[in-house]
Amino acid sequence: MNFVLDASVTMRWLLLDGKPADRAYALRVLDTMKQAETSALVPVTWGLEVSNVIANAEVKGLVREVQSEAFLEMLGVVDIGVDSATFPKALSDTLQIARRYRLSAYDASYLELAMREGLPLATLDEDCSKPPTRQV
Q1: Share of residues in the chain with pLDDT > 70 (%)
Q2: Which end of the chain is less congested by CB atoms within 10 angstroms, N or C?
């Protein structure tokens, strides 16, 4: 199975916060990621979003650096590919999606990628679940 992985799901794997249903969904996605035939695709901004959340969580004392490092090691063993077309699409298709659905450009980049590749979108962002996409 292939899908687009949103940072909102990824960060639940580290923080285990949010509603119980959100945590359960994120853990199901992670279990899916551990299957041999599964790969996720992310826009180039994903790494920056993940890094930002980790840095803020450490500053707030929500996680320790050792926990973050173990989390990053785990991310290194699952199949996550980075989409090289995110940047060229940013000022065209992604901007149009952000305008149409009133999303941040970051959230729109995940939706644009999912729509362009015809893949389901694994997200916990409620705004991204309104446009026509399939979720994992």
Answers
A1: 93
A2: N
